[in-house]
What does this fold into?
Amino acid sequence: MAWPDGTWIPLMFDGEPALPSAVFLCDDGNLLTGQRAWQAAVAQPERFIPAPRRSVEQQMTVAGTDVEALGLVAATLRRVAAEAWRTVGSPVEDVRLVVPAGWGPRRRTWMRHAAHRAGLPQPRLVEAPVAVAAHLLATGVQLPVGSFIVVCDVGGGAEASVLRRGPAGFEVLATLADPAAGGTAIDHALTALLAGDEAGPTVDAGAWWALTASVHAAKHALTDHAAVTVPLPAGPAAVVNGAVLEQAAQPVLQRTAQLTTEAIAAAEMSPADIAGVYCVGGAAQMPLTEKILTEHAGLTPVLVADPALAAARGAADAGAAGPATDVPVDAPPPLPPVRRAAAIAVPGFASLGLVSQFLLSPEWHGGLLRPWAVLNWGELAMAAVFAVIASLGAGTVIASAIASRSTTEPTSPGGQVGTGILASASLGVAVAGMYAVVGSLYIGADVGPFLRWALLPVAPIVVVAAVMALVAARQWRTPRGGWSELLAFPTGSVVTGAVGMALIQYSLTADRWPERVLWIDIAGRVGGLLLGVGVVMAVVSPLVLRMILAAPLAVITAAIVSRPASGILGVIYAIAVALWWIRQVWTRIVRPGRPPVRAT
It folds into this structure.
């Protein structure tokens, strides 16, 4: 439970500041949770479900009775809500659930439904590593903007996540999870070791769960004691010390170290790029954890203060050190840096410049009675494309404006970005349509050709933008480098393409005095060269490939500069821009390097 001033208290369950997720189904259909479920499991183990959260099936069969898995998780959340009400004397209004970073939309939706079944208001889901990072800042850890950290969660399972701190907060670059590792796996291995068979239990199910509960308590007691006694179901009690615990835990912690190493590689980084590795979870307190991570990952981990509650405190903004270090997990994304303004302003001014030249420099025919104009439709197409580029570049800015004016329940940053992308794409299409209507009225011609040349070239870009908006709203994946980086079209391509088309239009409409014909023709060829270079800069990124492809393509575009081919040149550039957006989605969202393994 946390309050806006940062004060907080832990809720207590059976004398502990944590509630096990185990559930026991009674004969009368009632559900026992937490330690009560573990105690009842000894007598009727067939009615015991140790981890219902790991299953998202609609129905489960427990002791011959069909029950909803959703209802089992809701029982635990219902008890939490009741304890919170009893503690503060009022219902909970703001609920934040910490979930693994590897959970996809299906599990997140399932968890929201469980909270609703428990009678809680709509929860805000916070990824565990992001919550831990917020807790680090609140406790005074210095993490500069632009730095990369690894959060290693060794709780019920094992999850290693690479995060980057950006201006809008922390974003997960890669996450690798293994539900078969972590503290639960260590409990199972130690229980099997004490039961006499490391491959599985040799006692009945009730005695197995009783021994597992004793082993779990002994594991935590070894943090403060050299050895503890564990009662066995049959025979004398066993003495468990650090050496026995390390024997059971070593394979599990080695798997955790492997996840950490692979997560760093999945984020396309090396250990030298990582500012720190921070461990949370019950098993993180074992000295062996630090030793194995140091040996296998090459990084010395740091045990986070209050590792059992670090994620919960970070998600609740509890115990913040002050406004200077307080980073709300779900705060709306702030405006992009000043350097991002160029990616918005350059295509915007290029669009205005091209459409102005398009309207002011047509080639008129027909005399005064029935004049008609020959137009450079390629220039109109490029002006429309640049208008959409400028609008999409402002997508994160629009998202921030939408978030700041929202008076309803806070939405996720992904939802804000998705709304901003859709709004910016719509704005770009509206501007392109306005160019067509204004051009039709100014020239005095039918609006059909204007609409075709203004809207059709931007259609593929708008489709890709809709896909990006869906990904952002559903929070399926955050693009590598962040959304602001994804929406930034290369400024160099805009400049070269716009200047090239402007020179082409000048060469087609300039007064051709005999002494100026050569210079006008040279200006058109140079414009074709620049347009070809702009196309290459949009299609490929490596400098070597740009140099290889720019020469032949620039020669071709320069050679075909003419009145009939001007529209073709504009379409070529529009296709190149659409390919750039498709490549952005593929390389930064669909296949951002090595795909992270997600927990299931």
About this structure: The radius of gyration is 31 Å.
